[in-house]
Fold:
Amino acid sequence: MLSARVVAVGFTLLTAAKAMTSVAPNTSSESRGLRAAASRDAYSGSPLQRLQRLSAVPGCVPSRVNDLLLLRPDTDNQCTSEPKEKSNNKHVMFFHGDIQNFQEEMALQPEGAQWLSWSLEQVAFTLGRRFPDRYVWVVRASCMYLHKFSCYRNFVDSNMFGAPEHSPYSPDFGAFRHLRALLSNGMERANLPNPLEPQGGADSIPSGFSLTLVGFSKGCVVLNQMVYELGGARADPQMSPFVKCISAMYWLDGGHPGGSETWVTDKQVLKELAASGVSIHAHVTPYEVCDPMRAWVGREHGHFIKTLEEFGACPSKKLHFEDEPPCIENHFRVIQEF
Structure:
């Protein structure tokens, strides 16, 4: 049975879900202005009031869509002399792991109900405390096979269980292209000021724009694919200005059902990452890197760190809960501890 605390949280979020759905597009500029003003007023209070769900947001291909959760920064508690609308164009994008889903959907699944405290909504709130001055975006995987296996096919070729097949950069498709268009369309749908353009060179990047990427568990396959694309993306004059806005990448206890490439180990690919100037963070737990049945995960993680250091990067790294038995609860808890 669910505890009274979890049930209470579930009912609260279910009630709020209606208010989080996105508004249908409107072609009137006056209507857009009114909606933007109303949106700013509506999302300046408690965390629930600042949370908005955006359904079926398209990426670079209109048929490839992802649901997004947006948690706006708590501007009421920020100290700044700049106008609130223009002072902040900092964003965090989070890619979740298996089992994680919207609160009401997890509550309907026996395997999901016991992990409601790690629903996408709850993770958004956790990240909002970790990054209080930024717009926090939670990207829901486009497919949840059997309601538990997250599959990020819009970003990287994957089988039904979400095991990836990584590939190099293409100017026509791929993780960077989908990410940029998805964020641009999400910002437009949410009526954010100074939105990112879906494509273009340096003049298409809004002033002060920056992006932090966070992958947890299966969600790390998206970050890995971007690393494989990084060299080509940095050489593409249309994509390079966007890539330069990525300030940090966080790998949180990466894992997927494939038998290799849980962590990037290709030296040439990691050389590009080390040279990119991106701040690199790797947080792991014994659940992933100390599992004797999947010993390659720990070896790959070590190779990832060592190779980056050899190329002059200074990745931050931490093994959490190293004195505790490996367990899935601590696997999830790394989201709070990183």
DSSP finds twelve helices and twelve strands in the chain.
